[in-house]
Amino acid sequence: MSTHSTAISTNVIIAAGGDSVRMGKNKQLMKLAGKPVIARTMEAFQNHPLVDRIVLIRPPSLASDFRTIASRYNISKLVAEADSGTTRMESINNGLMKTPECAAVLIHNGANPLVTETEITACIKATLEHGAAVVAQPVKDTIKTVNKGGFISKTLNRSELWAMQTPQGIQYQLAKDAYAHVINNNLECTDDVQAVELFSPQTGIKIVPASSQNFKLTTPMDLMLAESILRGQMPTPDHIHGVGEDSHRFLTEKEMRKERKTLIIGGVVFPGEPGLKANSDGDVVYHALCRAMLNALGGKEDIGHFADYLANEGLSDSKIYLINTKLFMEEKEYELTEARIIIEASRPRLADRLEEMRSTIQKILCLGEGCVGISPHSGEKLTAYGKGIGIRAFANVTLRGRM
């Protein structure tokens, strides 16, 4: 976290408390190019060197969802959360009450994820210099006022019209005084700096030109446009490859009497066969796939990154490990395109169950027909696995960067 003195420090309130009626579901939690919208918004301020702290306003019912996202994406500047109110003014005031003292406070819509570093910097500087500032876009269309009968009253001067966006900046004490004023007097504001207009008309509110990509996500079409913009910023997706291996020995008769484990390979149960010695169910195919995906992502995490914790919690189903690895891969903005598996074993007979394995793996990994290949062999009985002491699996996967 930055260590600016209070005299120049800047905090940001991110307003994410709306009901997203026009989007059809909570837009803050929707994925935008592989990440939740609110994660991209918070990252814009997390990564900005002039922003010290983040205060998040969110619906009380979704507090745990937002907290999980902040943790997953390492938003270390998040210092407080506030419940959304029945109006925007009430919500922002709730956020102000949680905002530590600073020189300038920015207020930003959680649904404006494509705000740029340049806009944030310019808004901070203008706020510190003038008292308040707002990022805005000049109106391109001709705007006319219309009377109650549906007839044009007059045409407004387009050169004087700007559409307000966020962030909107206000010096800290001015913001607290202005919001106290509008709330105590039941005044209605449609944006944040309007509170300053009503409380302190003498304060000049500086316009900061917005980039064309800084718009509020309101409808599904906006989300599609934002996806398109991000695709244009991202490099052409690359294909990366990974390999993984896993092996376990069969339990002895004595161990079987104690553990009573069933043999599971590729998600398929083989009744009557001894289980494999492992903390989990020992599914060597699922484990090899996990290792291959993690290997493709750089190999910094191993299957133990998921399996050890889950096993300690009593979760032994390797399907859970595979699902968690897939989610981890998607957080890194990759998707799986194919998986090829070799199983080395002399028992049980696998040939009759290969299609069942393929189908199960395809469903879990969301792969199409023909994208999962499985080849069993006995190794000519030259290895321990070929001699029936255990089972080994190799996996080779291809990942593609998500646009």
Determine the structural class based on helices, strands and strand pairing.
Answer: alpha/beta
CATH class of the largest domain: Alpha Beta
Query: How would you sum up the global shape?
Result: elongated
Q: Taking strands numbered 1, 2, ... along the chain, how are they ordered across the largest sheet?
A: 5-4-1-6-10-7-11
Second-tier CATH architecture of the largest domain: Alpha-Beta Complex
Strand content: 25-35%
What's the N-to-C terminus distance? Answer: 30 Å
Q: Quote the average pLDDT.
A: 88
Order of helices and strands: EEEHEHEHEHEEEEHHEHEHEEHHHEHEE
Count, helices: 12
Per CATH, what is the topology of the largest domain?
Spore Coat Polysaccharide Biosynthesis Protein SpsA, Chain A
Task: Look at the structure and name the CATH superfamily of the largest domain.
Answer: Spore Coat Polysaccharide Biosynthesis Protein SpsA, Chain A
Task: Provide structural commentary.
The chain is of the alpha/beta class and 403 residues long. It has 2 domains: 224 residues, Spore Coat Polysaccharide Biosynthesis Protein SpsA, Chain A (Alpha-Beta Complex), CATH 3.90.550.10; 163 residues, 2-C-methyl-D-erythritol 2,4-cyclodiphosphate synthase (60s Ribosomal Protein L30, Chain: A, 2-Layer Sandwich). The chain is built from 12 helices and 17 strands. The strands form 5 sheets. It has a 7-stranded mixed beta sheet. A 4-stranded mixed beta sheet has the order 12-17-15-16. A hairpin with a 2-residue loop joins strand 13 and strand 14. Helix 3 crosses helix 5 and helix 9 runs parallel beside helix 11. The longest helix is centred in the first third of the chain and has 14 residues. The two termini are 30 Å apart.
